[in-house]
């Protein structure tokens, strides 16, 4: 039997076993036997994926070798011997995999699994129906929220006969409780002729939902009616009546179902309202006719009030001040989620021993036994709704410490490196990964989002309880270890090494047998690492896909790094001692992300750097004067290039023209760089060009560079010598975001700006010599944000009525007081220009939206 037949046979077993994963995952929560079987299957799938990756890597190696004879050295090094050895090795691995697959498939007969070839959502059996009653005196901290929503529901300025308002937030935050307070408020009772409360099951059709609404409104059972009879009955019941309908706990994100329902509800009187509670911002956007009401966490004082009610008998909270102090620490870990406070407070209700309180205080919530309606099971409902690939992405977030500001870009690169992002034809992995991120964000798994100037999410945080959930579902796949760790699961695939100063530390012998680890990282600054420690680390974990040695110090990266065939992500961020990289790193044909920011002593890139044909993201700090010859030519997959703190860099390589897949070019704090290369116009995929804090940029008298038509985001900041923009954008450009900041020598904006009709956001900050805007700037009718600050010579007072009309129609405007603005009062009323145009229409519009981005890229804001 040949390799292809063996692989095909193994693949058939692989698909068959994978098809039952979803059903087995459900049953594992109720059966230890199923759980054990499932763990064996997961282990097998990991190993099978590594073997498939070996085949793909060998195919890529052979392609490289046939493309250019000099790449044959890559093959010899990478295979450790030759093709014959590779074939023998793969034959043995496939044979063992097939045997394991057959055993697992045989064991599967002991269980009644259902094969699911479509990645359907798991149906939650744990969800309980809700009701509309609430004892208002028991609710803490939601009075202002209630008043705000009541005022929205009673507002008379809504023209629709029916409007929808969504209350959105994390599970356990109190959305249903808030809806009950609103539903039972006397003003609501008096203003709505009919109030209807309906709990929404996850899966439903229009007939079922219509039946539920009629039953809630009338008490009658209409199960015997067909859909046409039901819709007639519903319209008769609501016809010309002002009603309030609450749809509680909505999960379904199918727009068509909700549009069909909305059509049925239009028979109500003007002023009718629908309130939706949901964890999903997607649902909120579908259902709402106004901006969703995002429910926030409670304050510590409010949470403490809830805790005291749950944990102590009335009046007894002051009898034991020690327990009360411990209770404050317990409340802090709940992060403002009222259900979490009730969960932990109720656990202490019957316990008076200090050790019981200390146990809860000192343990993560995931280690504390809970009932079905306590916080962790409630949060898990959101996790159970997700498809498998998204579950993997979510659980992987547990590699970040609690309260960590997670960079979106880094997170997506890590997901891609681990193979969690499923490829789709003609779509970039980064685009698909960004969709995954946005879906987790929409499900309230991420919070505290920081946005960049171009409206992209830069960083986010996970609520501590969501982080506990991620750790819970990740199980033993993730493990925190140090030099003193005594035991570790054989299933571990991701190691977080929690130790500082490894200069004199030995590599833990316990880890030497865990050779299948896929990621190794330090969750905080580790400092010096001894060379023997590093040698053993790299030679032990042959299956590594992610190696994060950020914020560590060592002089030499071992040559054995070239044997990590699966490695896709390598970070040496902030290493102040390393001077060169071994040329063997160029044998890593799967490498996708190389993070060298902050390597201030790095003198050069390896000779064969262009062999990294899979490299997608390069972040570079070095002492080079120019990028070496043949450095960029082979990087045909490169998506982003960041050149930061390269203090000696005088020019970028003309080979940049070969980076036709490049979408983002960031040049930061390169004080000797004077201009862009002329062939930037060859970057036919470039969407972002950011040049920041380059003291000499603009001193060159070279001819203006033609910018690509594909550019969407242009940032020019901290260029004191710049007199005109470094590139000339062509007519019909797709430019959407433009920031000019701290350019004291810039006199005028170019006329080609008039042709950027897709521009959405324009910010001019601290350009003291800027005198004029282009005459036709009023043609930028798509502009939504205009921000002008620190431009005292910019005079708008002599501009035309078209300019004033243009400004008045921009949704977010800020023009500070040192800008000369006036207009003819005769036409100000007709144009609806405010008497004082110095205004901030949106208080969220800040004057420094680059700070989080700058922090992640390792440089200081001026």
UniProtKB/TrEMBL annotation:
NB-ARC domain sequence ranges: 149-314
Keyword field: ATP-binding, Leucine-rich repeat, Nucleotide-binding, Plant defense, Repeat
Domain Disease resistance N-terminal: 15-71
UniProt keyword ATP-binding present: yes
SUPFAM superfamilies with a match to the protein in the record: L domain-like, P-loop containing nucleoside triphosphate hydrolases
One BP annotation, GO: defense response to virus
Keyword Signal part of the UniProt annotation: no
Residues annotated as domain Disease resistance R13L4/SHOC-2-like LRR: 536-726
Recorded GO MF terms: ADP binding; ATP binding
Annotated Disease resistance protein winged helix domain residues: 399-470
Family: Belongs to the disease resistance NB-LRR family.
Protein name: NB-ARC domain-containing protein
Source species of the chain: Daucus carota subsp. sativus (Carrot)
